[in-house]
Amino acid sequence: MTETHSQEGVSEKTRIRSSLLSSLLAYIRIARPDNWFKNVFMLAGIILAFFFRYNFEGAHIVLRPRDFLIAVVSLCLIASSNYVLNGIMDAASDRHHPVKKFRPIPSGQVSLETAAIEWILLGALGLSLALFLNRPYFFASAGLLVMGLIYNIPPLRSKDYPYVDVLSESVNNPLRLFLGWFIVLPHVLPPISLVVAYWMVGAFFMASKRFAEYRSIASPDIASAYRHSFHHYTEHRLLLSMFFYASATAFLLGIFITHFRPELIVTVPLLAGFFSYYLSITLKIDSTAQNPEKIYKERGLMWYLAICVVAFVVLLFVRVPIIGRIFNLTAPTTIQLWRL
Predict the structure, then answer these.
(1) Which end of the chain is more exposed for a tag (fewer CB within 10 A), N or C?
(2) Second CATH level (architecture) for the domain 33-326
(3) Per-residue pLDDT tens for 251-307?
């Protein structure tokens, strides 16, 4: 009898531990650490700030590993805070999605009250770390949190409005550019052409996600119940918006290239190929584009992206004067950026 009770006690403790672990994992899942890879967009800001610092300010700078680590942790915490808020506010509509209905919040695995506390704590901790770096980095980080509120919370809730949903969510892209930039150059702002181009490329990716989601659901009624903006969207309209965002990116990037770095003209065909490659993936049935956190599984795209990045970085820092002469362009020797 004693041995039986002992076994039951051990079994009960095992169940409790398993339950606690399962609950903890559910709260970790709503913070979506698998989406942290999107923060790699911050690296572009760091690289471009080094370019401007070296070429136009004539100063060398070393990025301290500690500052970089604090910046990355801060950004990941703030991003997770927004993901938790998004999960809380979307719980009702996610129940109409064939896959998202199994997420921890709509499936009832977590408490909404506890999730709300998690949202606040993650945001507060992220902002505290941001303030440790510098004030511009702090304000850009606060901008990320504010955009999370605008995107998710009524009466604004920008995600409910067609086109506004894509443009408001993709604002996070230039904000990540600012965050990387401010680690290196906290006293000036990046060129506006670069900022808006970064915004438009983010909008292209987000519209691609909407398109892939809409096609995957394959029912206008179910799609509309899941996402309010799908009342207006159609495949045709989403494709047109993707073309607009890609075109806007190209024009704005062209302004940046002709003003600051003629050598980057060589990357234009590569970037056009990347947009085409991504579009081909988006058009697939059950496309990976509807889950950007899994895009790394598209190995061909990842290799192509690596080639584009290497070419861009090399031509950003290596002068090839003949390119400027061919296109009758001259890179400036001095430049005045907006100062903070």
Answers:
(1) N
(2) Orthogonal Bundle (1.10)
(3) 999 999 998 899 999 999 999 999 999 999 999 988 999 888 788 889 999 999 999
